Amino acid sequence: VLKDQFLGRCAVFTQQPHDLVVVAGQPVTLPCSIPGYHGIVLWVKDGLALGVNRDLSGYPRYAVVGDHDEGEYHLRIQRVELVDDALFECQAIQAAIRSRPARVTVLVPPDDPAITGAPVVSLRAGEPLNLTCHANNAKPAASIIWIRDREVLSGAVYSKTLLRDGKRESAVSTLHIPASSVESGQIITCRASNKAVPSGKEARVTIDIQHLPLVNLSVEPQPILEGNLVKFHCSAKANPPVTQYRWAKGGNIIREVSGDTYEVVVDHSFFTEPVSCEVTNLLGSTNVSRNVDVYFGPHMAAEPQSLQVDQGSDAVFNCAWTGNPSLTIVWMKRGSGVVLSNENVLTLRAVKQEDAGKYVCRAVVPRVGAGEKEVSLTVNGPPTISSTQTQQALHGEKGQIKCFIRSTPPPDRIAWSWKETVLESGTSGRYTVETVSTEEGVISTLTMSNIVPADFQTIYNCTAWNSFGSDTEIIRLREQGGRQGSTALLVLRSLHLAVIIGVAVGAFVAFIVLMGTLGAFCCTRAQRNLKGVVSTKSDIRVEIVHKDHNAARETEEHAAIKQLMIERGEFQQESVLKQLEVLQEEEKEYQHIKDPTNGYYSVNTFKEHHSTPTSSHATEVRNPGTATLGKHRVPTGMSFTNIYSTLGAGPNRLYDYSQRFVLGMGSSSIELCEREYQRGSLSDSSSFLDAQCDSSVSSCGKPDGYAQFDKASKASASSSSHYSQSSSQNSDLTRPLQKRMQTHV
């Protein structure tokens, strides 16, 4: 009992170990004090004894330190390692006591962070930047941030992984930077930190943006006139550096130049064929081209082609020019000053043969120059013959008649014909046909040996055919020298004879007109006592026509109008019937009169216009047997149709005999007028009493019954006649057409 008490059965801990956090590599001491205890002391790590008392030979980094007499048993760990991360206890075996457990937490800083691709990250221009930073073997896992120009970048993607020991972790951070935010030469820092290294550890990377050469091609001077010297300079920036310069013009390599400068005398081709500078580095090549602003006159770019088209088709010409400054294009037909188009394309719609010819496409560069190109238009169509219609030859000599033929396509056949002879080629008697082709066309020649007078009276036909049609030309042969004068004399005599015959015929016609006029005048004088009687020779017209009496039709009209008059009762029935009977008898009498011209002439009136009853002038009727009735004329011989049609024509009910009648013969017409004048049997006879009659052409007597008319009637007739003459001389389209009698054969 005493021994147990000596060993410290009542021993207690004055110092016990406590939880500690320590960075790996650093020393640590876990306290343990049991004053007055002299027994066995054990340190236990995660339940395993490290050793007895102060003997920890199995753990060279471990040691028990302190004053033994004072009961101090402190555990000292040199250079703490991750394996030291455990639960420690201090136990007094004889006293049967143990300290509270103490947790030793070991912090492990991450390894130095590493950026993939560091220290220089290269990328091509225009590509985004992706950076990855690793912080491994840390406890706890390291946190990672990205810094650029002292500014923390956001948007990084972070992840961590637990290692096999179950205590350490590795962290990864990925940063994405768009191309627009990346610049060459920038430095970006990756900082990794945890509790072991609060200040963190850093890694840096430099951004190197590589790109194809950036090329600028300059041309001096500009603009420049063709034939002068220009200088091309090719400046380039490249990463990696430039390795080669190469020049070309219009795609053709210029091998004699290898530097960054090119000098040359320019022509018009430099305006359309660019000069290029190609700069190369390790990434590739950049090619820049420039055209030179060269002033030059027109040069043909697309040459127009001559065309051959069918008649009625469209013809399209295409003409392209280049020039600098801008040029003007004009299309014209050769020999014509008319501008057909100002465009590159000239379109002729539905061409005709006369459209064939030369067309000119002309280009003008103001103050620099001009140029033109001519093309031909050939129109397929029927042949066209152009020859002198009268050709000459000597009597007794060999003579030739030439026929010039333009034909596209060429004529299939050419023939000469005269009288009853047709000759296409070869010789027939005195005649020989030869055909020669030229650039302009075909010439066919008819040769006659030993010209005779009959050859000058013969008509020669030259005819040509092709697949589109044919054409014919009539050619006459005229004698040269002395024979020419005799031929002209014959022609002159023929003309004289024609003139004599014409004069004789004219005189005969004039005689007939004169006789008709005298007859009309005599009849007018015979009836001068009638009111408003006028008859002039201009009222007579004789025309050769086919006779058509229409007897049956007039009979029907006669009956119809007669019945109409009876029904209307406008005239006294008995008086009217008597008039009709007289007219019928007179017409029957006239139909039996022998035609003095034996049917050669047929005398009729020709109605040109109806005058209104209110006209202020007398109305003329083309009737040799008509006298003026105030404003109307009454014919001597008339059809039933016309007289009846006037009975109800208007309020005045005047007779209008201007429609259709024949020339009466004898004195029966005058007697009719006398009877009608004396009878006055119409119910409204005032209009009829004003009517005036004239005799036929053959009746020139002057009845006594007309002597009662005064001189006023003559004055009226004279006035009406004067108007008829003046109106025939001065026609006016605004006045109604006048009825006039004329004589012609």
Automatic annotation (TrEMBL):
It is a single-pass type I membrane protein. It holds the Pfam family Ig_3. InterPro entries: Cell_adhesion_signaling, Ig-like_dom, Ig-like_dom_sf, Ig-like_fold, Ig_I-set, Ig_sub, Ig_sub2. The chain crosses the membrane at residues 495-521. Residues 609-633, 711-745 are annotated as: Disordered. Its main location: membrane. GO terms for molecular function: cell adhesion molecule binding. This is Kirre like nephrin family adhesion molecule 3. It comes from Scleropages formosus (Asian bonytongue).
